[in-house]
Amino acid sequence: MLSHFIQRILIAFVTLIGTSLVIFMILAIAPGDPLGELATNPAITVAVRENIRRSLGLDQPIPIRYFKWLLSLLKGDLGYSFTSRSPVIELILQRLPTTLWVVGSAYILSVLIAFPLGIISAIKRYSWIDQLLTTISLMGFSLPTFLTGLIAIIIFSVQLKWVPFIYNSTLQVNNINDFGNQIQQSILPIFVLAFYQCAVLMRFVRSAVLEQLSQDYIRTAYAKGLSHFAVLKNHLLRNAMIPVVTLIALDIPTIFTGALVTEQVFRVPGIGALMIESIYRKDTPVVMAVTFIYAVLIVVFNTLADLTYRFLDPRVKYN
After folding, report:
1. Using one digit for the tens of pLDDT, what is the confidence trace for 236-255?
2. 240 and 93 share one domain
3. CB 49 within 8 A of CB 35
4. Exposed / middle / buried, residue 277 (Cβ in 10 Å: 0-12, 13-18, 19+)
5. Where would you tag: which of 69, 256, 280, 286 has the fewest CB atoms within 10 A of its CB?
6. Are 103 and 279 in contact (CB under 8 A)?
7. What is the pLDDT of residue 113?
8. Residue 63: which residues within 8 A CB-CB, separation 6 or more?
9. Helix spans in 124-144 (H)
10. What dihedral angle (degrees, nearest 10) is formed by the CA atoms of 139, 142, 145, 148?
11. Which CATH number goes with the domain that contains 254?
């Protein structure tokens, strides 16, 4: 177990180094100039432009720039934004609470809904309940979030006028009324994200449970006279949750890095929106930081999922 853990850590470290190198190279050779308007502004002289480029470190070769970025990263420094000249870590921390509130709430809601519905759909397979839940889940992950977001805005904001369709980033929660307004403006983006994520999770839960229902050990448990609940709780779920744990582990990083499309549709000032804005401006330090954090979270949670298998199924051996 210990040797497997050390091996996983080494693999994760090498994976992150390789990922950071690929991301940095892509951003470095991508078309566009990080100086933005300064690069094409005729009022800016060539000497001033070169001084700015030198101050940003853009005059150095790409390998040297990468190793300097990696050295700063190891010291806990994510660098400074090219456009705002603010520390990247401050920009991320400013957007993180909004992303955690909207995306985190949507994910928790989707898990709470998808698990029981997926299990019910599997147990009641081929019934009208299963067909209804399957149809809804197919619609959920077939429709892109930008489309469901626009439909939700047209119905609930434009036509019914129940909730606002633009997220107010200046709202500060100081009393119960402000908290009510915060919930009201968060309903649509949370609903859109939860609808999509719930559909995906429900399909996975249903497939995992159905696969286990046909196994011999389930029939043996029923033959012993165990109740449906006892079989479900003590035998079926522990085995059925192994593929679901992998899916959840890979989805959790999105809670911290935001929903790129949905945040743009509803103008939610989260990390996803920050990344889109930084890509438009070719703000390499910000894009590099967000994508690398996303890569770190994926590797970490994937490793945790791998280690969790042993607790879900004692038959799993780490050799």
Report:
1. 877 777 777 777 877 777 77
2. yes
3. yes
4. middle
5. 280
6. no
7. 92
8. none
9. 128-142
10. -40
11. 1.10.3720.10
Contacts of 164 (CB under 8 A, 6+ apart): 157, 184, 185
Tokens of residue 156, six digits = 């609930």
Nearest to 20 by CA among 258, 304, 287, 246: 287
Q: Which residues contact 78 (CB under 8 A, 6 or more apart)?
A: 72, 87, 88, 89, 92, 285, 289
What CA–CA distance (Å, rounded) separates 145 from 258?
A: 13
Torsion of CA 215, 220, 226, 228, to 10 degrees: 20
- In this structure, the answer to whether residues 54 and 198 fall within a common structural domain is no
Task: Report which DSSP code applies to 234.
Answer: I
- Nearest in space to 234 (alpha carbons), one of 248, 221, 247: 221
For 216, the token pair is 């011999």
Stated pTM of the model: 0.79
> Residue with structure tokens 């909004």?
98
Q: What are the φ and ψ backbone dihedral angles of 80, each rounded to 5 degrees? A: -120, 145
Residue 124 lies in domain: 88-312
pLDDT in tens, 87-118: 889 999 988 888 888 888 888 999 899 989 99
Residue 279 corresponds to which tokens in the numbers above?
A: 């890509």
Q: Are residues 194 and 60 in the same domain?
A: no
